[in-house]
Fold these 2 entries.
Entry 1:
Amino acid sequence: MSNLITIERHILEQQKYFPEAHGELTDLLTDVAFAAKLVRREVVRAGLVDILGFAGSTNVQGEEVKKLDLFANEKIISAIGQHGRFAVMGSEENEGIIIPPKNETGSYALLFDPLDGSSNIDVNVSVGTIFSIYRLKGDDPCKASINDCLQHGYEQVAAGYVIYGSSVVMVYTTGHGVHGFTYDPTIGEFLLSHENIITPKSGKYYSINEGSFAQFNDGTKKYLDYIKEEDPATNRPYSTRYIGSLVADFHRNLLTGGVFVYPPTTKHLSGKLRLMYEANPLAFICEQAGGRATDGRNRILDIQPTSLHQRTPLYIGSEEDVIIAEEFEQGLR
Ligand SMILES: O=P(O)(O)OC[C@H]1O[C@](O)(COP(=O)(O)O)[C@@H](O)[C@@H]1O
Ligand SMILES: [Mg+2]
Ligand SMILES: [Mg+2]
């Protein structure tokens, strides 16, 4: 595998799978990679520029917004919206849909979490950006609406994420495998570093915020007892790993094997994470890599969306590990 394949070149080669797209999907993904470079530029020098701390406002989720959340949001909307390829967008940081400046030519909808892992921004722990792309339902971009955003996850034409960590990595899928690219700042390019990622059928890590133990239901509590029991035959006990940035916890488990669980809690009865720009894109990637993603019962990609910011429980990662966690959630174990 040559390390000299840029993400733009790789995306171009994926075009063979989309003869009807006339290269537009290529341009879209290239726009996303460009926006990621702009966000990365601020993230890597966050302590030196006035981008740490709270912005003094709350978002539609009722969360206090960080300056970097707003910066990333603004950069993605302007860097991508200016090209007129998206007719409509949905962001974690905007209550309603966004109609980009030149949407009249767009044939796609973009949903995104501009900055994932906001609680880790100020303390130099990995954060990320997550995105999901759909083809418009109708032919007239000027009539693009929320309906073009609220499509089943299995309708995604592309999805991906960027991690801003010790290195900056962008991972994406168009439904033809999962591929990772590492940013080389000496040449300003994302270069192929992880081709055709396949996640192990089971792993050795479990990721869950045990600080919320008192809010968990019996199924989740029993699962935690099970995963910590001593039994070498089933690779137990698993080691706990919880960064608190979904994109980073997911990426680790994708490469090494393991399971991430954000269950329903008494505080978040339908889970905390958002279906449209967190669960759906990661579920598409996870399944493409041979993993599994459910809400404890249903396949994430089959969930019928009803609102832009709806939440869902999330059980995602290595297939066998996710199935075990589900069985406890369903009271089958
Ligand atoms: O602190 P908690 O309840 O474990 O929640 C952590 C989760 O919340 C998130 O930070 C939510 O995402 P945002 O940072 O984009 O709002 C996830 O990245 C992470 O997995
Ligand atoms: Mg997030
Ligand atoms: Mg976010």
Entry 2:
Amino acid sequence: MLKTLDHPLALHVLTHLRDKTTKPATFRRLCHHVSVMLALEATRDLATREVSIETPLETCKGRVLDRPLVLVPILRAGLGMVEIIVDLFPDVSIGYIGLERDHATARARSYYCKLPPLEGTRVLLVDPMLATGGSAVQAIDVIKQRGGSEIRMLNVVAAPEGVRAVEEKHPDVPIIAGALDRALNDRKYILPGLGDFGDRLYGT
Ligand SMILES: O=P(O)(O)OC[C@H]1O[C@H](OP(=O)(O)OP(=O)(O)O)[C@H](O)[C@@H]1O
Ligand SMILES: O=c1cc[nH]c(=O)[nH]1
Ligand SMILES: [Mg+2]
């Protein structure tokens, strides 16, 4: 299942992220803004429990988040989404999956993996770009092997091919994306896309 953002602010932020004249400092700030919107959309149905608190005036009932949340960025570009999501959900545990696409084949190679216990948690898997879906499918495979069962994937931009790959291999994983773009080019870059997210984030 794919859900894309339709908030006018999301459209505005995405347009500036796509603009090739946007410099890394602004790009990182815009990445934070869109990550907040993605995180809020992806966590709309988080379980809450009732608590009783004292306001300055009287006792009242409220609700607080109830279930452990694990945030898993796919390195390196996914790191750009971490800090701001941790600001929103300070109690998250964080796991890291390092994958890098080979420039010639566009196949993702694993170079790092460090995950906390995943049983009974909800996992937010974050990676700005969903292109062929190779990285996402590999990351979800690993998370499931380690006991993760409730996984949501957050992407800034998704391509139809990547969405199809995730839906085919992991139909239980919803995708929340800033936008669904048109296609991939012959080097498996997203069109219109925004280029290499990691390079633009880190000025490489
Ligand atoms: O859907 P796919 O075809 O697998 O492509 C998407 C992957 O490519 C990018 O990472 P990249 O491999 O460029 O690594 P980086 O984040 O270190 O730049 C992106 O952040 C995804 O992880
Ligand atoms: O368009 C793309 C595809 C993969 N990775 C990126 O950073 N951008
Ligand atoms: Mg890259």
